Amino acid sequence: MIKVSHSFQGPVITGFQVTLRPVAQNDLSQLRDWRNSDTVRQQMLSTDFISEEQQHAWFKKIQRDDSQQHWVVEYKGQAIGATNIKARFHGDSVNTAKTLEPGLYIGHPDYQGNVIAFAPTLALYDYCFAHLSVESFFAVVKAENKAALKYNQQLGYQVINQSDLIDLRLQKEGFERHTELLRRLLSRSPRKGQ
Amino acid sequence: MDNNAKIKQVFCQALGIQPEQVTDDLTYNTIEQWDSTAHMILVAELEDSFDVMLDTDDIIDMSTVGKAKEILAKYDIQF
């Protein structure tokens, strides 16, 4: 179960132990460090380093671009990564698009390769299916990125095209079916005293 | 069966691995068999075997066999 509130920059989504809040100016330095780290950069479709100037231009662009939305992922009040959605087809906004392309990385080294990596996706996709017009998600991963492929398949994505890049598609029914147990485990009450 | 043998058996069954692979350092997502699906099965089997109910923070924190023992120790399971 997710909770959604609204900030000036966009929706704030809370659920499955994490909070997704829209990226703010003061997140940029941390996000750039993570995005340029070898662990994260090598899994990206573009492995180029991002300069401070490029990132500021990107941030300025996304402020007025309704075809994409970016969030910082927080766990226990600490930023651990970033996630985003983009309209798949030119001219669509994220609010009206039938197909969205998601993005996610966990930058905090303590949480890379941890089951918490599923939490932001559960929260984000639940939000998209319940509050936006999306009917399916479309993801592209590098063929050598076995971890991302497995991650997506565990969410219920189906491979629809395979070459150097692998195209995957996910619909609501498959997502809910594949994540039933995962969402139950990540929805338990927090530890007493917290 | 003591608790060390019991936890080893649970890991072997849940992950489908050999007893000699179950060391305190064995870490989530570092072997093919310990993925998120297996993690969920593991949690369920640990709960059944040790008669405990883990909370979400425990499930997230349980990233190694050693960590699993530490978490179970909070529930008065001694190793």
Automatic annotation (TrEMBL), chain A:
Residues 18-186 form the N-acetyltransferase domain. The keyword Acyltransferase applies. It comes from the Bacteria. GO terms for molecular function: acyltransferase activity. It holds the Pfam family Acetyltransf_3. The keyword Protein biosynthesis does not apply. It is an enzyme of class 2 (transferase). Signal peptide: none annotated. Keywords: Acyltransferase, Transferase. Its EC number is 2.3.1.-. SUPFAM superfamilies: Acyl-CoA N-acyltransferases (Nat). This is GNAT family N-acetyltransferase. It comes from Alteromonas aquimaris.
Automatic annotation (TrEMBL), chain B:
Pfam families: PP-binding. Coiled coil: none annotated. Gene3D superfamilies: ACP-like. This is Acyl carrier protein. Residues 6-67 form the Carrier domain. It comes from Alteromonas aquimaris.
